[in-house]
Amino acid sequence: MAALVLAEAGFTLAVHHRDSKEQGEEVCFLIHRRGGKARLFQGDILQPGEPRRLIQAVADTWGRLDVLVHAVGPFVRERRRFADYREEEVEALVAGNLTSAMMTVHAALPVMRRARSGRVVLFGFGRVGEAPAWPDRAVYAAAKTGLASFTKTVAVEEAPYGITVNMVGPGDIVGENKEKRILAVKGQADGETPLGRPGSGEDVARVIRFLCEPDADFTTGNIIQVTGGLDVIHPVSKAPLFD
């Protein structure tokens, strides 16, 4: 949804995928059908050197990189205590949610510095800036909390180059709602969300669009919650106990 909203705002999109070519092609098709411009790029940014290769490919294609939106996971919905994760699962969650973001930003900054302008948008969760306890989400929470600190730090470091770095923290927007417009969910009731309706992909995408605007240069180092007022963090573990 963020790609479509940015395309509607006039951005030319470099749509990235690792192993979901069909979905990437569908996004590009929808953008082209609406009169926008987009091109699909493949790369596994979890692998050493791949973020730099990907960023260079985009810069070689269009000669610039104005915006980087890093929307890489994974997120495990199953509730599990930290002790019940396998080592490889811990490594994958940290690599996807923290390391891949850091290395992709590291690759993008030289291109943006040369232009003396750039926008970086990363993903967290509601209340990530508080570094709260999130039972059953220990690894994901730790990775995103680290990314929140990274967001604030790089925002300060890159401000002299005209580069902003911000984080959006979506609420519990799941399933098909991730790709829906606001109008499509406004008539639906959601008893958990204080706003009274579920969130949509467009709710998040509209915030991203603002952060990417040239005149949004005074907004940097921020964590912006898009939750409808919902606190997704439960105070105690709900995962089953194992001996």
From TrEMBL:
Provide the alphabetized UniProt keywords.
Answer: Oxidoreductase
Question: Which Pfam families does the entry mention?
Answer: adh_short_C2
InterPro entries membership: NAD(P)-bd_dom_sf, SDR_fam
E.C. designation(s): 1.1.1.100
Q: What Gene3D superfamilies is this protein classified in?
A: NAD(P)-binding Rossmann-like Domain
Molecular function, one GO term:
3-oxoacyl-[acyl-carrier-protein] reductase (NADPH) activity
Is Oxidoreductase one of the keywords?
Answer: yes
Domain of life, per lineage: Bacteria
Query: What CDD domains does the record tag this protein with?
Result: SDR_c
Family from the record: Belongs to the short-chain dehydrogenases/reductases (SDR) family.
Q: Mind telling me what this protein is named? A: 3-oxoacyl-[acyl-carrier protein] reductase
Q: Which organism is it from?
A: Desmospora profundinema
Classification lineage: Bacteria, Bacillati, Bacillota, Bacilli, Bacillales
